[in-house]
Design a protein that fits this description.
The chain has about 90 residues and is of the alpha+beta class. It has 2 domains: about 1-50, no CATH class; about 50-90, no CATH class. Helices cover about 50% and strands about 15% of the residues. The protein has 4 helices and 4 strands, in the order E-H-E-H-H-E-E-H. It has helices at about 15-20, 30-50, 60-65, 80-90; strands spanning about 5, 25-30, 70, 75-80. The strands form 2 sheets. The protein has a two-stranded antiparallel ribbon. The protein has a two-stranded antiparallel sheet with strand order 3-4.
Length: about 90
């Protein structure tokens, strides 16, 4: 079973005369649109999971995660580093 093809009014052209002629069309598969949407969604979630809303009242918790330092395998890390690392790991 093949995926249905979607037609758009976007016209790729090499010159103005081709654009004015209007005889070239670009056909996109639905799977390509789904892939583009998934990449945009993942990028937004990757940025967004580290942001917090001040109305939630979690600022003291976030501050404590960012200020508590300890040594792990010779590197100075915080709990915030682990939070971000596990979030990026779960994203993939």
């Amino acid at each position: 079973m093949s995926m249905p093809r979607l037609r758009f009014d976007f016209e790729p052209c090499r010159s103005t005369s081709e654009l004015l002629a209007g005889n070239s069309r670009l056909e996109l598969k639905a799977s390509l649109l789904y892939r583009i949407a998934s990449v945009l969604l993942l990028r937004g979630h990757t940025r967004g999971f580290r942001m917090t809303d001040p109305k939630l009242g979690v600022s003291p918790l976030i501050a404590s995660l960012q200020t508590r330092h300890f040594q792990i395998q010779g590197s100075n890390r915080t709990f915030w580093d682990f939070y971000v690392g596990f979030g990026l790991f779960m994203r993939s």
